Each structure stands twice: as structure tokens, then as C-alpha cells.
Amino acid sequence: MQLKSQVEWALHCCAILGMLPPDRHLSAKALAEFHGVPKEYLSKALQSLSQAGVVHTTAGVAGGYRLARPAGELSFLDVVEAVEGRRSTFQCANIRANNPCRPADQCDDKPCAVARVMWDADAAWRASLAGVNLAGLAATLNDDLSRELLAASEKWVLDRAR
Amino acid sequence: MQLKSQVEWALHCCAILGMLPPDRHLSAKALAEFHGVPKEYLSKALQSLSQAGVVHTTAGVAGGYRLARPAGELSFLDVVEAVEGRRSTFQCANIRANNPCRPADQCDDKPCAVARVMWDADAAWRASLAGVNLAGLAATLNDDLSRELLAASEKWVLDRAR
DNA sequence: TGAAATGCGGATAATAACTATCCGCTTTGT
DNA sequence: ACAAAGCGGATAGTTATTATCCGCATTTCA
To answer: Which Gene3D superfamilies match (chains A, B) (predicted)?
Structure first.
């Protein structure tokens, strides 16, 4: 079970978009070039972010993307769910219903005990993702990266932002 | 991103194996019939459990499986990792290295900030799974299911156990 | 006003992963 | 010796992921 590579791309794109001043935006082409990923396919991830309301899209020539809300109000979970969807990673096929000892007409008042545990774990995963927002990511990057790289990257982005 | 159906099967199989008295075991054929899943493919999941040390295998005619340890010492995580593997659900392709502003020879002293958050969430998921063991599952099932179904299922299993 | 750049949605492949089955082999109880 | 069982490898069928392409609508700018 692996998350799609688009999740990683979307998170890095949001980190970059968080560097933009309000009301400026960056194209899919620039984001793809910055991250070294195929533009057409990255566009699909950006479209998912747009549909989920994580980013705001500007159409037309010189169009592009910006964060739909302040970085402090956008969590990792928002981004991950935009790309991966909100369905639990565990799908219960209700195989308990195949128990040969079970009356065929029995109806279950509770979800399967196995599924409940798996869903709890899924909820813990999402809660962890919900606990980190893009402002926190920016702060971490600020600590991790050199002044030079940060400044150069910001310049690169702002030179291409509209 | 969906967990394999084999995860669900393996967990339900372990729940059944937990009903067996020590030193008795149940065949893949019986487990497959009980859960209404294809025997050949279920066998693959059981082989994974065996290789991971979750279950103990008895070879030869009248062979089969039993839990390798007491139910209280086997967690959901043990079962899930046996089938899904121990690799994180998030794979970092290190796309930060593609940043055009970055010197080509730069080496990173820390893992990518995005990956760290994703790995923390993965760890939270696994911690949640590690917090429930098969004895706890048995207790839950004991509360959830009717006396009749529990007794009938136990009889069905014991009739086929060796 | 028209050309160019951009995002969007659908269609289409290529690749990988998951699901499933089969077969020969070894082991073991009767 | 034989039958039933688990194991490992081989092989398909199906689904999901990755990737590309195309036409269309929108918008900027000359």
C-alpha cells in the first residue's frame, strides 16, 4: 500500500505556493520545472487541489495557482485528502457475513469489530496529518535549509509569479 | 491507497485461530470456507503470516495453522505488517533535489521536511494498530456477537481442528 | 481583434500492483 | 504407499497508478 507520488508533489507545490505574497500566483509549468516532474501529470494533482478548495486557480494566459487560504489554515490532511480522497485506507468487505454458522437473514447492528480497529488507526493517521499545517512546514523548512537556498528559491519563484 | 483485501482476511483468520486451544490447528481449506474466500489466494496470506512469525505452521496431511504466540501478545500491527510489509505508506522521492536553485553537490543532513511529517503520520497509524491485540479483538467479538453464533462458530471450528 | 499562454476535462496508453489460479514439490498421518 | 496439506514459483486477469495528448474555454497582451 503506497500513497501516490502525486501526494508528495502536491505537498511540495503547496510549500512553494506558501512563499507567494497574497494575490500572486504560479503556473503549473513553473511548479513542474521547479520540482522536476512532468507538467501534464502534475496538472492533474493541481486540479485535484483546486477542486478540493485547497488552492485557488486563475485561468487564462499568465494564469496559475495560489493557496486558497492562509498557510496556517491549510493542513497536510487537506492536501493529502485532495489527492488521495477521503475514503478509509481499510475497506471492509464484511466477510463475517460468509460465516456458514450465521443465519442468512441476520442483520448486524454494529460494524465489524476488525473494521472498527482498522478505521480507528486510519483516523489516527488523519489526525496526525491534520495536526501539521503549511505554516508549520514553512517554519521547518526555514530551519532546515540554508539562507542561500531559501533566498535563491524565493527569487526563482517570485521571478515567475504573476 | 487501499490496503489489500488479504489484510482483512488475515485478521479474521487470526481471530478464528485465537479460538483454538493450544496445540490444535486449522487448515487453510477450513479458514477459506469459513470466510468465503478463495483458498489458494488465502494461502498466500497465511504463508505471509507464517514467514512473519505470526502463526505456526504444521505440515503434512492434517496440517494447518495456529497462532505462534498467545493472542494477547499478537497485535493488529503484527498481522497487518506481515501482509502489507513494514515500509512506510509514504515514499519520499526526494524531489527537493530537483530544485534548480540547488547546487548539484549539496548533501542533505536531514530527511525532507515533508517526508518527516508523512512518516510521523505513518508511525501514528502503526502505533494505533500496535495498541490492539488479538485478545482484545476476541473480547470485542464476545460482546458484539450473539451467544448462539459464538457457540456455533466455535463448534464449527473445533470440529475441523486437528 | 487576434494570437498565445494557461487551466480543464476527457481519451488513451504504458506500467505496476493486486487478485486469482495452477502445478510440481515436500511433508506427514493413516 | 497413498492422500491431504503447506510451500514456492509460474502465469493470467483485473484494477490502479503514471503519463501523455488533444480540444476547448478563459484571459492577457500586442
So the answer is: Winged helix-like DNA-binding domain superfamily/Winged helix DNA-binding domain
Share of chain A above pLDDT 90, in %: 93
Which of A117, A153, A155 to mutate to probe the B interface, most B CBs <10 Å? A117
Query: Maximum CA pair distance of chain B?
Result: 70
Predicted local confidence at residue B105, as pLDDT: 79
Q: Is the dihedral of CA B66, B67, B71, B75 positive or negative?
A: negative
For A97, residues 6+ apart whose C-beta sits below 8 A from its C-beta are A108
- Provide the β-strand partners of residue A92: none
C-alpha grid cell for residue A71? 498557510
DSSP per-residue letters across A55-82: EEEE-STT-EEEESS-GGG-BHHHHHHH
Are the beta carbons of B125 and A127 separated by less than 8 Å?
no
Which one, of B72, B76, B59, lies nearest residue B10 by Cα? B76
Cell numbers linked to A44: 492533474
pTM of the model: 0.93
CA–CA separation, B89 vs B7, rounded Å? 15
User: Which residues does chain A have within 8 Å of residue B144's beta carbon, measured at their own beta carbons?
Assistant: 110, 113
- Per-position pLDDT tens, chain A of length 162: 899 999 999 999 999 999 999 989 999 999 999 999 999 999 999 999 999 999 999 999 999 999 999 999 999 999 999 999 999 999 999 999 999 998 877 888 899 999 999 999 999 999 999 999 999 999 999 999 999 999 999 999 999 999
Angle, helices B39-51/B76-84, rounded to nearest 10 degrees: 110
pLDDT at B104: 78
How is residue A10 annotated by DSSP? H
Number of H helices, E strands in chain B: 7, 2
- DSSP character at residue A58: E
Most B CBs within 10 Å, among A2, A4, A5, A8, to test the B interface? A8
Architecture of domain A5-87+133-159: Orthogonal Bundle (1.10)
Predicted pLDDT at B103: 86
Please give the Cα distance from B78 to A12 (Å, whole number): 32
